[in-house]
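Handout, tutorial session.
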Amino acid sequence: MSHHLDTPLAAQNGQLFIDDLYVFSGDESTVFIMDVNSNITGVHVKPGFHHEARYEFKVHFDGADFEALTYRVSFGEPDSQGRQVMRLHALAGKEAREDSASGELVLEGRTGEPASAAGIRLWAGRIADPFYIDLSLLAKVNGPIKSGTAVDLSEWRPESAKNSFAGTQVETIVLEVSHQHPQLKPGAHIGVWCATKLATDAGGWRQINRGGHPMMWPLFWPDDTHFTNPANTRHPSKDFDAEGEHIAEHVAAVVAASGTSDDPEGYGQTVARELFPDVLRYVVGTPATYGFATRNGRTLADNAPEVMLSLVTGSAVNSGLKPSVAKNQRESKFPYVVPE
């Protein structure tokens, strides 16, 4: 699940670890963005994408438990300039959830260059990271979530907040699908998650990481720096049964200690139901926003950390940062990101 922070495992294998997922409306299209390999993990980050991995966007329709459409991106080994061949396959129906299925080759291209075919555009490469948060605020919240104690922000000064991700980079995959697509027409109700998978010696594929809602790992499993929790390897359809009570109990304990709900257990259950299954819900063709009043996709500008921190504490948390702090890290036209 999404994790943006400095951990030993992420530092060694950043190409396989998902930082963010975005879903929003583009130019008569739906845009899917997956970020991996943040260099906030330090100097050991290996640039580019893993040439033995698959990077997949999974799309569910009308609240279905399983995906009915998968876009699979794969990469070749880097050339002398660090560029990689990229390929996009589409898998529909039952094949969408089968690792053994090959799907249809939609297009081929190279990282750092746009590629397009049949109403689909793809761009992949290194970009300025549009994510923004002051990590000192996160530290003040995820400790109480872990221990089930009251959140104390009395010493937090929003006016002094600084973006801890300023000047950092990530590898990104930007996929844009036209509204003419037979399944992704305006009005379609979709749920989206993404995954990285690595080839195994036995000839199969092993799911390494997945992402849906932002900041799940640092909020609910902050001490699991080696990602031993099976959350990353399971399918979202199993999320609530596997972790729903865990999330509900942690949230209930925090809001009970903080006095922000008269029904802590009920609030905890509501939050768990909101976050699981861990997919981004979006109505195709509508304005996307990951906000307090509604969560409908997620744009590059959304202050998702502020929303998540407020959701799990049951009280408005002021991050001190506005979307303008990262305005130079996004564009209004394809590929919507700023290459480095």
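The second record follows below. Compare its token runs with those of the first.
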Amino acid sequence: MSFIRSARRRLYRGKRPGSAARLLNTVQALLAAHGIGPSRVVTLDVRGRKTGRIISMPVVVADYDGGRYLVSMFGENSTWVRNVRAAGGAAILRHRTRETVHLDEVPLGQRPPILQRYLEVAPGARPHIPVDRTAPLPEFERIAADYPVFRISAAAVSR
């Protein structure tokens, strides 16, 4: 395991961000929201299920087969996943501009190729997902149930 890979794992012991990771995430979320950095790194804003406050975090958007997707590199217990589910999929993505979106959970059978694409475009997630990005699709099928995937779509306009 490389030094960088092991350092990234230490930032998220127990699949929870430590104080250094929280600070880095705050900085990266601010940069992404202002359009600084790669366009695939965005800030996800979602209402907290317990506090009701807007929670912001940096996420990587994976493009696959004409769609855009968010993947939880920490699996089912990721806070943003629980918040998105509690919010009924309502969220905002920011990268220089604000985009009101709806996040629809992808069925299990459709996740493997999206997970593979996610690992191609999100190097920071690689230490946390137990499959190499060059592994064949059956390896991603084996872990697909453990990693939620959400398709990004335009939010319906309410009248």
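Points raised in discussion: The helical segments are 3-11, 19-33, 79-86, 111-121, 137-143.
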